[in-house]
Amino acid sequence: MFRAILLEKDDQGFRAGLTELDEARLPEADVLLAVEASTLNYKDALALTHRSPVVRLWPMVPGIDGAGTVLHSAHPDWQPGDRVVLNGWGVGETHWGCLAERARLKGEWLVRLPEAFTARQAMAIGTAGYTAMLCVMALEDHGVTPGSGEVLVTGATGGVGSVAVALLARLGYTVVAATGKAAEADYLQALGAASVLDRAGLMAPGKPLQKERWAGVVDTLGGVALANACAQTRYGGTVAACGLAASMDLPTTVAPFILRGVTLAGVDSVMAPRAKRERAWARLARDLDPALLARMTDEIPLGEAVFERAAAIMAGGFRGRTVVGIA
To answer: What does the pLDDT look like over 240-272, one tens digit per residue?
Structure first.
């Protein structure tokens, strides 16, 4: 038996809670993992609060991220005792996830835990931080360098935004952090932001082309904010779009792309191939300051606190990263 958060939905409605399950109920896959830590991302919060149809198979153990030790493996790449990280691949949506003491996962989904990180540090990073690294890599791959000019990070107090600010600043970029939480300016500057911008200026519809400012953008919001970010990006700049916290819509025109040569780079973390994941985790081990990671992280136990934190994330009342301690 093992402890797990279980989400259920039937004719009597949606139910969620901490329960004990038999390992025999775990889905088929070739690696059994003893989960030491998980985390809460925006997608997890959506599932736990039943605010969006994230879960596609019921009942479901949520948790799109996990880190721990292999207990049993029928996959050639993994042996008992190996330390691994899981991000995405539909886990917590169509396959039971890692807000549990045990998870049965496909070996092809796993990445070796970098020696630089404990399981808890890896989950302080989680999909949010791994996505932030993918965004930084997208900017680099499109030629945005620290000397190119200012880089805007939207949703900067969230998980992706916080890690993106810390990474970009450590790499030498001039980071402008956009947030709707003026009281968090000191937090963002401590992570490395050169200045803090009121998000309100990005949330009102603007002209298709606006004054050029950003050499690069990491956008977690979508919607009008993303449209304005594109309209304000300098000639040849790149916008890495990875989120929809504000909206799935993109009310813009082709003007920034055909008149200024702006690149809109979509960043997907869920189905990214293993080679890209390994590159991202290697870069995180090299480029993310552990002290800043600790500054943006707190830990909660597996239990009722998970639901309380999910509600706070959905209400916009939480900053940074949450580790869920399991073992």
So the answer is: 999 998 999 999 999 999 999 999 999 999 999
The overall pTM is greater than 0.90? yes
Which CATH class, in words, describes the domain spanning 2-113+296-325? alpha beta
| Per-residue pLDDT tens digits for 213-245 | 999 999 999 999 999 999 999 999 999 999 998
Overall average pLDDT of the 106-116 stretch: 97
Q: Is the pLDDT of residue 317 over 80?
A: no
Query: Sheet harboring 195-198: ordered strands across?
Result: 195-198, 175-179, 151-153, 214-219, 233-241, 263-266
From the candidate CATH numbers 3.40.50.720, 3.90.180.10, 3.90.470.10, 2.40.30.10, the one assigned to the domain spanning 127-266? 3.40.50.720
Domain limits, CATH 3.40.50.720, in the chain: 127-266
